[in-house]
Amino acid sequence: MVHLAQSADVRASRVEVVMHGLIKWTIDAALGPIRAKMREHIEMIEVHKLALDALTVRVEDCEKDIPAFSDVPLPTTGDEMRADEADAEIEAETDEEQLGEREETVYEELAVLEAAMFEIARQASLQVTSMLGSSGAKDLEIPGTDAQT
């Protein structure tokens, strides 16, 4: 009798080890594609960060060229502007608009990536929770104990 109980304990411990391995393997298999997507999104975010950093450096460089105040005397001929000055002014405005558009695009793409990362993490969490919540184990039916007559 003691030998039979010990044999049952050994089998139960083996089943626990095997089931633990199967559960871990199933979770890893399910999370593999999600982890790959997360790596892709992280790489895209890093690229966008680099682009944003480069844009910031360019803007800072442009700001260095602009003096805080101007020592240029006012023109004595009135409000006439030279064609070169007008062209330079228009070009500066265009550059500012383009930088603003690029910056807006980068922020929009970052927001989309952030939302996608959140959604992937949420789905992974739900998937893991559902796997842990329902193990799929059923009660063993031992013939003869509750048999209907």
Task: Note the main attributes of this structure.
about 150 residues, mainly alpha, 2 helices
Classify the secondary structure makeup into a structural class.
mainly alpha
Proportion in helices:
over 70%
Distance between the termini: 30 Å
Mind describing the biggest β-sheet? none
Mean pLDDT over the residues:
77
Count the strands? 0
The proportion of residues in beta strands is under 5%
Q: Using only CA atoms, what is the Rg?
A: 34 Å
**What's the helix-strand series?**
HH
User: What is the molecular shape?
Assistant: rod-shaped
Uncertain regions: pLDDT < 50 for 5+ in a row? none
Number of discrete helical segments: 2
Structure description:
This is Polyprotein protein. α1 (2-65) runs antiparallel to α2 (83-133). 77% of the residues lie in helices and 0% in strands. The relative contact order is 0.10. The protein is built from two helices and no strands. With 149 residues, the protein is an all-alpha fold.
Topology of this protein?
Layout: H1 2-65, H2 83-133
Helix pairs in contact: 1-2
